[in-house]
Structures are given as C-alpha cells and as structure tokens.
Amino acid sequence: MTDSPISTPAPGPDAGTGNILRLAAAQALAGANSTVLFATGAVVGNMLAPSPVLATLPISIYVVGMTACAIPAGFVARRHGRQAVFMIGTGSGVVTGLLSTLAVLAGSFWLFCLAAFFGGAYAAVVFTFRFAAADCVGPDRRARALSAVMAGGVASGVIGPQLVTHTMNLWPPTLFAATFLAQAAVAALSAVILAGVRLPRPTAQDASGGRPLATILRQPRFVTAVVCGAVSYLLMNFLMTSAPLAMRLCGLGQEDANLGLQWHVIAMYGPSFFTGRWIARFGASRVVAAGLALTAAAAATGLAGVDVAHFWVTLILLGLGWNLGFLGASALVLECHRPEERTRVQAFNDFAVFGCVALGSFSSGGLLAGYGWDAVLRISFAPVLVAAAALAWSAMRRGGEARPRTA
C-alpha cells in the first residue's frame, strides 16, 4: 500500500455550496435542540432528582451519549456514508423530545436521563456536520467550510431559548412538557433538510485503507488537537451546565437564564463567520490560544460577581472561547489525516473530546451543590493551563519537522 495520499474528488462548486447551506440550516435546528436541553436539563433534574447532587446528571448523561455514539457514527459513515448517520441522528433527536415529554408528565427522573442519552447521540451526529462540510470543498477551503456550517448555530442561539420561553407554560401544570414536544418537531424538520444533502458514497479504500490508527494518534499535532478540543469543549460544558441552576440559586429567574443562554449560544457560533478566515491567516494554533484566553477571562468574570450582568458576560466570553478553541482544534485534526482515514480519525477525535467532557460534566453538579459557583469557576483555570502547555509542546516538536500533509 502506498504512503502517498489518495484524493477523493470534491463535489462541484454548486453542489458543495448547496450541501453547506443545508448543513448550516440543520446545524441551527440541531443546536436549538441542544440549547433546550441545556436550558432545562439542570432545572428539570432539580425538580425530579432524588437528590440535589444529581440535578445536572441528565446533562452529564447527554455528554455520555455523545461519547458512546461518536465511534459508532464514524463506523456507519465509513461503511454506509454520512447520509445514513444523519438520519439516525435526527431520529434520535425526535426520540429525545418525546421521551422528555413523557418523563416530565410521569415525573420520572430516570426516563429524563434516558431521553438525554438520545439527545447526546443526536449531538454526536451533529458534530460530524463540520467534517462533512470539509468533504464538500477542496483542501484550501476546508477550514472556511467547517466554520461556515458552525455559523448556522447562530440561529440556534435565538431559536432554542425562545422555544423554551414561549412553550414552557403551554401545558399546565407540567413545566416544559410542550417545550419537549416542540423539540421533537424541530428534529424532524432537520431530517427533512438533511435528506437533500448529497455527498460521495464511501469507496472500498475509505472502508479499509489508510495507516493504522495507532500511527496517526502518535502525531504530536493530533495529540494537541485532541487536548485543546477537549479542554475547550469541557470548560464550555462544565460552566454552561451549572450556570442556569447557579442563577436560580442566586435568586435570578428562568427568563434571565434563558436569555443568558441565548447570548451564550450566539457567541458560540457567531464568530464562525470569521473563524475560518482567521485560521487561514493566523494559523489554527494561534486561534486556539485566543480561545483559551477568552475562556479564562470568562471564569475570571464569573468570580467578580453574581448579578445578571456577570453571568451574562461570563456566558458570552465562554461561547467566544469555545468557538475559537474548538474550531481551531478541529482544523488541526484536518491536518493529521489522509482522505481515506478521515472518518476513523474524526470519530476518534470526537470520542476522546466527548469522553473528557463527560468526566467534567459529572463533577459539575457535585461541585456546584457542595462548594458553590465560585469553586466551579476556580477549578476551570487548571484545564486551560494544560491546553496551553500542549500547544507549546506541539510548537517545540514542530520546529524541526515538516508540516503534516493536509487531508
């Protein structure tokens, strides 16, 4: 087997643009689904859980679902194409909304946790949209295609919180029952949009070609990509999971939490209109470093006070940091594999990232309940330092090495 990369022809410009637009629209709707869960998960968990320590467990289970389904999603994509994965994912999104409705009507905490697992499965598929977009264009446009799809999430920052605000009391006396039915409908609409995406079918070489995975994973560039992606996502989830409940514990209303999450999600995806250009101009590593600095600034802002403004600014800075850190790390992943290796490497990256996020998510509820919001914020600085050290290590190792070949 040859060591030289084997290129798969990218779709023509019109097909590529159409695919990216559909993926961006589906990203917006899927992001709204996730925002609904993040806005309500800790609150519903607090209402249904047998102990306050378990209040954020549903969101942790959501991240477990992301982790558990990342590798299977890559396997299905490798064998049957990304379109099959998209349909499985949106189906899981519909199930999430329906099970959540049943859970709040029946007052079942564990059924709500099961619904959250399916929500995580949906999210694992949604995060493949960014890599699917990269398949639609040539190598020089992949960072921009990746960020263009993520820009679709800007709409989710409005759709998700407003969906909660305008539906949470429509089915009295059960809070959020109508919200979760609307969540299922949004996932079904996403499936309709994704049905029009046209991507190349996997070839025999896609299914069995490429270097051993262990060889790819030993690249310093790939290790750094995983560490930085994991830290960026871990801290975003770690703080966002706790923030709505922390706001309620500080005497603030659900509407304040909803609006804070709305601006957080807009901040998560808004920079995507420019992030691809920044990566092309300044390099992925510098963009990641800027994201880590913004995340640290978010934690510092949260420590400065507990009024509405401090929570909102914290959530906005957190969203901006996630965007630069996560998209920059995703662009690093694209530098570490060949075309025939992409689904395996991308799936492993997401598995590793989501696995780290799950560990952090499980600890956030206990930290908030046992030690308070300040403790959640203070501990966030440690992962930032780890990721910064990984970037410095990769830069030193890369000094005397040739640039890895772009997929």
From TrEMBL:
<dbReference type="InterPro" id="IPR011701">
    <property type="entry name" value="MFS"/>
</dbReference>
<dbReference type="GO" id="GO:0022857">
    <property type="term" value="F:transmembrane transporter activity"/>
</dbReference>
<feature type="transmembrane region" description="Helical">
    <location>
        <begin position="109"/>
        <end position="133"/>
    </location>
</feature>
<dbReference type="Pfam" id="PF07690">
    <property type="entry name" value="MFS_1"/>
</dbReference>
<feature type="transmembrane region" description="Helical">
    <location>
        <begin position="53"/>
        <end position="77"/>
    </location>
</feature>
<feature type="transmembrane region" description="Helical">
    <location>
        <begin position="347"/>
        <end position="369"/>
    </location>
</feature>
<feature type="transmembrane region" description="Helical">
    <location>
        <begin position="312"/>
        <end position="335"/>
    </location>
</feature>
<keyword id="KW-1133">Transmembrane helix</keyword>
<feature type="transmembrane region" description="Helical">
    <location>
        <begin position="260"/>
        <end position="280"/>
    </location>
</feature>
<feature type="transmembrane region" description="Helical">
    <location>
        <begin position="176"/>
        <end position="199"/>
    </location>
</feature>
<feature type="transmembrane region" description="Helical">
    <location>
        <begin position="220"/>
        <end position="240"/>
    </location>
</feature>
<dbReference type="InterPro" id="IPR036259">
    <property type="entry name" value="MFS_trans_sf"/>
</dbReference>
<protein>
    <submittedName>
        <fullName>MFS transporter</fullName>
    </submittedName>
</protein>
<keyword id="KW-0472">Membrane</keyword>
<feature type="transmembrane region" description="Helical">
    <location>
        <begin position="287"/>
        <end position="306"/>
    </location>
</feature>
<feature type="transmembrane region" description="Helical">
    <location>
        <begin position="145"/>
        <end position="164"/>
    </location>
</feature>
<feature type="transmembrane region" description="Helical">
    <location>
        <begin position="84"/>
        <end position="103"/>
    </location>
</feature>
<feature type="transmembrane region" description="Helical">
    <location>
        <begin position="375"/>
        <end position="395"/>
    </location>
</feature>
<keyword id="KW-0812">Transmembrane</keyword>
